């Protein structure tokens, strides 16, 4: 339909688009009259999703249109990046259908609907060239060179481009177009939006026309299995060969699409309990968690293709109040129950169950104080295995005393086969082990080859045969890969690069996260091979550094996932009773923070979601102002003041590796690299004499260890505590003779004190779990968070031999736990605590 130019309307002072029409318009008076008639009709069509036509002009033998100027990209350009997520597809599709409905009521048929004629702008989708294609056809003629917007007839590869792909069979037969012709084209556009492919592909115009006329298109769900069934049906009906078999009006299609967007496309449960639909949640069922002390919500539905389509329902049910989710929920294999680890208002932590046909969630008796990690379902969905007290245990979902299976002091996640085998992992560097569900001695199945560049093996997941499994391997250089292992000891084989664990789901896909997108990749479970390219399921789904990502699927194709979103937090000053005294700044994505020795400035790393980077900022606590301290695009974290307040050290992931840097606290000058490391390393404390910076460092085969970095210029860092367990968060005593730190060597995190740099004894300070120790300025107290997230104080004597008294709970913090991130600091007077707290009323991103 010609070339398009950006122009300025000097009369009305607006930017417009000028479309110059082909020369044959001017050569045919009849064609020009028809074009003017169509243009007048379209110019009267006022709709927010139709590109406005301002004028039709003729100058020096050239016909041109003056149209609304649009900024954005065409749908064709967007589809060049792949298929659209379902919620984005539905939003655009409803807008297109609404525009078609309005045009058809005015007697206007588009006749050339295609992705290239749909613009995606900030205001929504905009349809172009509305109603003008018909005027571009020669009356009574059959000259194919005058057909609408053919584009290039063939590419070098022999693939047809242009309108033929979206033309209805009756158009190809030369019959008069009516609204149902647009509906066919709309179905072809929907198909491409859902699958990333055109309905028919062919190597010649004749074969393409033959396919459109006679072949049945492949269902969209056969290409993109996660296409909602109702959307699959809408597309198929639009593409019916017989116009009478299609949707008869755009209004009908719009109503169907709106219903799908509200949740109607999802295969339902036999007895839905409640229905409060939310159009922004686009897959089967929702699981929403409210931050910290707020309530939680659960919801259900189905998304993956099922053999039949029973009544389709989505619903959401409030879970018990004052319940805090601690770990990712896990679906039972039969899709009927969600299990999750949570803490209730009394501080009791247990595994909770929420049957999807019930209004109530309940704690599972016999699961008190489980270690962090996901519950492990038995294949019949009647038992749950979990880690507690340094052991792997199992319990019936009906409750009762749990039974020990084996010792597993660092167990974290696992999988249970139909043959009665359980695979489980542990801390960083631990092997993947196998154990019979009935008990016995575990055997190492997959071990870490630290000399070969391996850092960790974790997240085993059985395949249907119960003999092979997939797991995640992480390297010391930062990469991670999905691997195929076997119980018989067959050498593992590489499957794919991935950012997260994977899970197999019928009828033959591996679900995993890659580049913040949950994908489904075709997988032949029998052959143990990937058979196709990854297909996007949901965007904004991130994996953490361990490979965990918030998604879970069941045998009956139920799927849940949670999108990652910025969670704003407050920095709140509290007294020893937990009462709020004041706040620092506005809510942000606060990370770790450090108070200057004079107590007047605060260094804190803050995550910027828009720029996808974390930088260190400095707050002036007297003036309430803040300034940026680091500017590198890489992640900068864990700032730490020097004892004299003149310098700040921080960790960073710049230059493709991890490192510890130092910079003048004034912000002047460049950062200086103190320590380069292949693995994650983070500054934790700076000794009062200024000689040593204590580090938490991720080591190959040993997990998190404690290291010391001399600040004398030698840069010869050395290990202080290096065990197979997670040892982290070291803090120097004021006199530098002791370090307090946390370790999970007992099966849960506890606080220990030992001499620095050693050798010497070691004392356990906490009695019911502990993390993040802090010394008081006078060295007479150690503060920490206990297993219930309460702030605890322990009086200690460190002048001679070390001794500790009984812990005293000061206040409940209601903190939202963040792996390997700081949650508080202690003011110099020992009477105030700066805590990072969630913004009240803010919800954690929903599980969809």
Descriptive notes:
The strands form 15 sheets. Strands 11, 12, 13, 14 and 15 form a 5-stranded antiparallel beta sheet that branches. Strands 28, 29, 30, 31 and 32 form a 5-stranded antiparallel beta sheet that branches. It contains 10 helices and 59 strands. It folds into 3 domains: 3-263, Transferase(Phosphotransferase), domain 1 (Orthogonal Bundle), CATH 1.10.510; 329-561, TolB, C-terminal domain (Neuraminidase), CATH 2.120.10; 569-838, 6 Propeller (Neuraminidase). The protein is globular and about 105 Å long. The chain is 12% helix and 37% strand. The protein is mainly beta. α4 (86-105) packs antiparallel against α10 (250-264), α6 packs across α9 (229-238) and α9 (229-238) packs antiparallel against α10 (250-264).
Please provide a brief summary of the model.
The protein is mostly beta strands and 848 residues long. It is built from ten helices and 59 strands.
